[in-house]
């Protein structure tokens, strides 16, 4: 398939939609592919968590499709994907209040966007638990999140410290990738004077800034909670106008103690897109996935 040809999705990708709860946002999409060396048994699942400051209803589980299209549209990627990936999945989750997207009084509970931490994380953990029960891949998956999706990806490892009940069956991923992620919420607000930062953090986590600290992944050790880890990656973009470099720097320091157990890659400035163009054009996320898979394969992760 030439790189300038469109993906023949009906031949390469089969999409399935599922609900994992009663709320209209508790949904996910699975994209199965059928490449020439398709790995049904030993391949990885790649699971994506979208961003949007925990509140943007215009960003959904469908936000991962441009990335998947890009991965399959470039011959240089196809062998890597076909040889090592079984399927892709993308998760929607309940959202917090957004002043630019008001809802009518009397909106049904199954449509209401009024989530507060740890509701977002509860949904992500429940969605992955649903996928693990359905497909049986255990820890053999790559969990990638953009912006607050990166927050949620790393929070999933420390979920029990964040009030997620252990009764939800959940196996940690072998690989976590945070792209343009938020890892220290108070630091993000302090480095950015625009009132929107304070606004969306209060919307998702409340007024008490100690709660922000307790929910910030950069304030936790991951070694004891993550015995399954093989690869941990954090990525930033030189063109990111919304998340400043102190976020990747603080998370990189926190991941240092994983280096004796796993591959840790800090890809500061690896991308050059603006914050949302990382995902909405698909190129940035695809490049990160390819870079991560190459490192995972080189380190024997596919064995």
Describe it:
There is one protein chain. The chain has eleven helices and eight strands. With 303 residues, it is α/β, with parallel strands linked by helices. It has an eight-stranded mixed beta sheet with strand order 1-2-4-3-5-6-7-8, sandwiched between helices. Helix 2 (65-73) crosses helix 11. Mean pLDDT is 93; it is low at 1-6.
Q: Provide the structure class.
A: alpha/beta
User: Radius of gyration, Cα only, in angstroms?
Assistant: 18 Å
- The first-to-last residue Cα distance is 28 Å
Question: How are the strands ordered across the major sheet?
Answer: 1-2-4-3-5-6-7-8
Low-confidence stretches: 1-6
What is the 3D form? globular
Strand segment count: 8
Strand content: 15-25%
Helix content: 25-40%
What is the N-to-C succession of helices and strands? HEEEHHEHEHEHHHEHEHH
Mean pLDDT metric: 93
Helical segment tally? 11
Quick one: biggest sheet?
8 strands, mixed
Short description:
This protein has helices spanning 9-12, 65-73, 75-84, 119-135, 148-155, 185-191, 195-205, 209-215, 246-255, 277-280, 283-298, and strands spanning 13-19, 27-33, 44-49, 85-91, 141-146, 175-179, 231-237, 263-271. With 303 residues, it is of the alpha/beta class. It has an eight-stranded mixed β-sheet, sandwiched between helices.
């Amino acid at each position: 398939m030439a790189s300038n040809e469109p993906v023949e999705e009906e031949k390469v990708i089969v999409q399935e939609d599922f609900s994992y709860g009663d709320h209209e946002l508790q949904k996910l999409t699975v994209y199965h592919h059928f490449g020439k060396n398709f790995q049904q048994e030993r391949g990885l699942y790649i699971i994506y968590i979208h961003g949007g400051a925990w509140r943007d209803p215009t960003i959904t589980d469908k936000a991962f499709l441009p990335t998947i299209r890009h991965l399959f549209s470039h011959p240089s990627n196809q062998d890597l994907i076909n040889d090592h990936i079984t399927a892709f999945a993308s998760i929607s989750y309940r959202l917090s209040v957004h002043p630019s997207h008001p809802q009518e009084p009397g909106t049904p509970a199954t449509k209401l966007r009024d989530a507060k931490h740890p509701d977002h994380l509860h949904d992500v953990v429940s969605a992955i638990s649903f996928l693990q029960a359905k497909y049986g891949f255990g820890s053999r998956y790559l969990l990638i999140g953009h912006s607050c999706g990166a927050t949620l990806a790393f929070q999933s490892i420390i979920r029990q410290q964040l009030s997620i009940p252990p009764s939800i069956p959940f196996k940690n991923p072998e690989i976590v990738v945070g792209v343009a992620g938020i890892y220290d919420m108070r630091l993000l607000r302090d480095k950015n004077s625009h009132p929107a930062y304070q606004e969306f953090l209060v919307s998702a986590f409340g007024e008490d800034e100690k709660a922000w600290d307790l929910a910030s992944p950069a304030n936790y050790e991951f070694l004891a909670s993550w015995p399954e880890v093989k690869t941990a990656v954090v990525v930033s973009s030189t063109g990111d106008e919304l998340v400043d470099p102190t976020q990747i720097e603080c998370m990189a320091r926190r991941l240092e103690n994983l280096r004796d157990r796993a591959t840790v890659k800090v890809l500061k400035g690896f991308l050059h897109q603006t914050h949302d163009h990382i995902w909405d054009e698909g190129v940035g996320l695809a490049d990160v996935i390819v870079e991560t898979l190459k490192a995972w394969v080189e380190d024997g992760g596919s064995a």
